[in-house]
Amino acid sequence: MNKYLQLFRLGNCIMGVIGLVLATLIAVGADIQYHLTELAFASGVVFLFIIGGNALNDYLDREIDRTAHPERPIPSGRMRPGTAARISVAAFMGSVALSAALPLEAFAIVIVALVIMLAYETTTKKMGLVGNLSIAFLTSALFLLGGAVVQRLDTTIAIAAMAFLATLGREIVKDVQDMGADVDRFTLPQRIGARNAGIVASVSFLTAVALSVEPYLANRFGIAYLAVVLVADAIFIYCSGIHFRDPKRGQRWAKIGMFVALMAFLVGGTL
């Protein structure tokens, strides 16, 4: 694979843009056709932001990757560390520059996300729960941005909150699964024990379930949304129990639940 495409994680960049488009569809439905310019700028913001984060990750983790991921551009000798660092800086600067053309709330979301991303890669990644919260926010920020781009942030707060809580739960379950292998991180399971951390993850999943009905009760979305989101709720409820016995299975079902929830909001926003 081309070293630059491998550094960029092109698939992640494309999925990020798709997530942004779906979030914007949730916000304005068919009226998205009137916001194509803003969406194009925002897509560039997301694309470059993800490149910046991936390049920074490869630069900072280059020593670890010598054994964990020797096929990546830096440890394989196909790219100098300084090149990855410069790409990261340029991508982040480009992302911020493009975001300046968006509404103020969208620009603010990008700046906050950048600060959290830099903190995560340099510090909070090894701080257990703080790192989990950082990843959860960065996931939810994509949905916040999709609403802010069209100045309809109110329509995507609920899906952003669900994404935050579901991602937080999944990250904690992942730490439970990796408890024995995490020698350079002080994770929540290591602090309070696997079972107590699992309870925190379950509370996070179930809180997402409780929040899911708010758009229906507030008359923002109709019965079609409710029908689909209840399927997502059933999956999250299942996750809140199964991960105690099988963390890997719990993670997998949490991802499925997040996808179904996204489809529910898409149905609600477009029908």
Number of strands: 0
What structural class do the secondary elements suggest? Answer: mainly alpha
Radius of gyration: 19 Å
The topology string of helices and strands comes to HHHHHHHHHHHHH
Low-confidence stretches: none
> Beta-strand percentage?
under 5%
Main beta sheet, described?
none
Shape: globular
**Gap from first CA to last CA:** 41 Å
Oligomer: single chain
- Residue-averaged pLDDT, rounded? 94
Instruction: Please bin the fraction of helical residues.
Output: over 70%
DSSP summary: helix tally? 13
Q: What can you see in these coordinates?
A:
Helices cover 77% and strands 0% of the residues. With 271 residues, it is mostly helical. Helix 3 packs parallel to helix 6 and helix 10 packs antiparallel against helix 12 (223-245). The longest helix is centred in the first third of the chain and has 25 residues, at 36-60. The radius of gyration is 19 Å and the shape is globular. The mean pLDDT is 94.
